Amino acid sequence: MKSPAAWRTWAVGAVVLAVAAALLVAVGPEGAGAGRAGTARGHRWITDRQGRALVLRGLSTAGDAKQTADGMPWIEEKDVAREHRALGTNFVRFLLQWRKVEPAPGTYDRTYLKRVAERVRWYGERGYHVLLDMHQDLYGPGTGGNGAPRWATETDGHTSAPTDPWELGYAEPGTVRAFDRFWGTVEGGGRDLRKHYVGALREVAGHFADDDTVIGYDLMNEPWGGSVQGPAFESGPLARLYQDGIDAIRTVDRDHWLFVEPSAIGSNWGFATGLPRLDDPRGDGDEARIAYAPHLYPLPMDLGGGYTGDTKGRVDASLRAWREQTEKTARRLGAPVVIGEFGLDVGLPGAMEYVEKVQRMADEMGAGFAYWSNDPGSWAPWDAEMKPTVLLPVLDRPYPRAVAGDPVSYRWDEAEKTLTVSWRGVAGVRGGTEVYLPERHFPEGGRTEGGGRQEWNPKSRTLTLSSGPGAHSVRITPRG
Ligand code: IDC
Q1: Residue where a domain stops, chosen among 396, 422, 446
Q2: Which of 132, 150, 162, 402 could form a disulfide with 52 if both were Cys (CB 3.0 to 4.6 A apart)?
Q3: Whose alpha carbon is nearest atom 16 of ligand 1?
Q4: Is the minimum distance from the CB of 222 to ligand 1 under 6 angstroms?
Q5: For ligand 1, mutation pick of 59, 93, 134, 137 (most atoms within 8 Å of CB)
Q6: Whether residue 146 has its Cβ less than 6 Å from ligand 1
Q7: Would the pTM of this model clear 0.85, i.e. be above it?
Q8: Could you read off the pLDDT of 20-75 as tens digits, one per residue?
Q9: Do residue 340 and residue 432 come from a single domain?
């Protein structure tokens, strides 16, 4: 038996499904990818300063930053060190809140941004790439959610009641009206809230423009159109906000990547998105640096199911649809893919099989990911007492952190204890291919077949392979 809440979610899901199906026909044609193409998968790679393709593996830090008075997540520097040691990650999606960036209209809180910068430094000292995520859920505190400042919350007297699950709050009248006011899709209204939002994005980018640890900005977490949905929202108000945000950021920061998300409800489950291709005015003919960062939460799991029995087949179907739509949208945007969020209660039946399946899919797609989230508790690699959960060994997995050229494929075969990495050298790329070899699988480091000169750093557990132009394929197995 499903709980009443689950049935309610299902009913909402069914309605959204019908609406989405009706709107799919409006999704525009695909454009060709630009920039350093040449990969089998037809999309580009996020590159570091040395031109190496990055395989981003990490978690979001952290959900609790939505609620804390100073907007900081729970972590101290020792927790960053622990995460690095325990999981070998090279990526973090770090939550920001508009309410903290711009506490009063036109007033920016530099102290807040400095606190963020201090945490970015903790990550940077361990070789991480930080994605600054302008997070919101359900608009803001004034509508039962988080993100937007109170002064930017206009509900015209409509209210929002708490819901279970929380996502249903997107249909509450106060939340819908606050979004409609934000997007300017209802008559009347006071301030130009989008102008403020874009100003806040520019302020953040101005602060971090010269910070090499920052890989880019996630312009808005899970945008929601209020009463305007589907391609009418994504190719209309959302695309305009993104374009304005991108243009504003580029006046202060030419180089960091700009991560865009589709409207979450629907695309999280594998539906098409109407997000159009955006312009990146970097100038001087430099290639665009726009990345696509959709979330992945298959509907059968949203409804509280695990990855088992009948649900498994439905989740698999949802994953296939999600991958197909994501690859299609990424081609249209000419953008590399980072799974901005995926995650679940690690105690659900089959949960670890699901996580491993998503990791394999990410490897095949050449996509980065940020698992949701590192908040100690039932979804995380550590519980409330900081003891490892079953998730920790599953996330602690070998992968190439950076590839000196265009990756062709990389694959971890746990049964054979073999990591295979293939790439094509690209002129102008500096530095080696860096591979993470966790202690649990490679206690004495790795033995390679097909590699050239190499160097092993036992502290960061990184094997660096030097290579020139041409095709390379390296098989790495445990030494000893
Ligand atoms: C969840 C938090 C939960 C909180 C809720 C609402 O885990 O404690 O009550 O947000 O703020 C998302 C969102 C992300 C969610 C996550 C899990 O981007 O903020 O965090 N999720 O529900 N989209 C789909 C799932």
Answers
A1: 396
A2: 402
A3: 372
A4: yes
A5: 137
A6: yes
A7: yes
A8: 443 433 333 333 333 344 333 334 899 999 999 999 999 999 999 999 999 999 99
A9: no
